[in-house]
Write a structure and sequence with these properties.
The protein has 10 helices and 9 strands. The chain has 290 residues and is an alpha+beta fold. It folds into 2 domains: 162 residues, Regulatory protein AraC (Jelly Rolls, Sandwich), CATH 2.60.120; 112 residues, Homeodomain-like (Arc Repressor Mutant, subunit A), CATH 1.10.10. Strand 4 and strand 5 form a beta hairpin. The longest helix is centred in the middle third of the chain and has 22 residues.
């Protein structure tokens, strides 16, 4: 790790692949000085980091770097450049998760409260710290849960608990505009149908441009990106737990082109639908013989 983490030459050297495919990927890292991660384009999902001890630094756009110290929760929205590292002289002990939120979470996930795109909240109360650490530990431990059919739901439920605990601690709670909430409800209910921004605008009495701006401002993703992620999220368990053809799955979740579905799935999760299904089948086979 260089002493000048903003050196462009170091940016290129530190470029990393996003993370393994999946709706939710999590882990517990204890990393000494020298650990770093840089993703120029960020990721297509959210990143949440909770620091247990030590100190890390994370880049926050034009405002520079933020510190990640014990009790600090950091939330990075999709598409935000990710550049973080362990501070010199420290060991950074943190729990983290990359996730695609359930649509109801959007009313709880906070907007940036810093001079850049990142949200940070220091958890002051010891009882609140213990609650967040306990819930986050379950997010990570459920990766090893034997019943793969329940594993994803248990993991998402534990992360939902983390999100709710953060929302309860955040003094500047975000309240979604009712028109944005209505669009989220439509996406959740009608994702398998054709959804056009023009039609959504008519339903909530806003022009397409105004609705698009308001939605992006409050949710962090565009309307179509949110719809895309929700459709892909619905497709994942169908790939994991059914034998339905990939073409049929694509049509069932709202994609009219199986090839387009495959490209989008690969772009979001780093693996094609067929290979993702193969990996899941291999994991189930290993579980069955253990």
């Amino acid at each position: 790790m260089a002493n000048k983490p903003d050196d462009p030459a170091m940016f290129a050297a530190r470029q990393q692949y996003t993370h393994p495919p999946g709706i939710l990927v999590s882990d517990h890292y204890i990393q000494p000085y020298g650990y770093s991660c840089y993703r120029a384009q960020g990721t297509k999902d959210w990143l949440i980091i909770y620091t247990l001890s030590g100190k890390g630094r994370i880049h926050n756009g034009a405002s520079g770097y933020l510190s990640c110290t014990a009790g600090m929760l950091t939330l990075v929205s999709p598409g935000t450049a990710q550049d973080y590292f362990t501070e010199q002289g420290h060991v950074w002990d943190k729990m983290w998760a990359h996730f695609i939120p359930r649509l109801p979470w959007m009313d709880w996930i906070p907007s940036s409260n810093t001079d850049g795109p990142i949200f940070q909240l220091h958890i002051d109360k010891e009882s609140s710290r213990r609650a967040i650490e306990s819930a986050f530990s379950r997010v990570i431990s459920y990766r090893l849960y034997e019943d793969s059919m329940l594993r994803d739901e248990l993991t998402l439920n534990a992360l939902e608990e983390v999100i709710l605990l953060v929302a309860s601690q955040n003094q500047s709670k975000k309240e979604l505009d009712s028109r944005v909430q209505e669009v989220l409800n439509i996406i959740s209910r009608d994702y398998m149908d054709q959804i056009l921004i023009e039609d959504l605008g008519k339903k909530v009495c806003l022009s397409p441009s105004r609705l698009s701006h308001l939605f992006k401002e409050q949710v962090g993703d565009s309307i179509m990106e949110t719809l895309m992620k929700h459709r892909l999220k619905q497709a994942e368990p169908l790939l994991q737990y059914t034998l339905r053809p990939i073409t049929e799955i694509a049509l069932a979740v709202g994609f009219h082109s199986p090839d387009y579905f495959s490209r989008q799935f690969s772009g979001h999760f780093g693996v094609s639908p067929s290979n993702y299904r193969k990996k899941c089948r291999e994991a189930l086979r290993i579980e069955s013989v253990q």
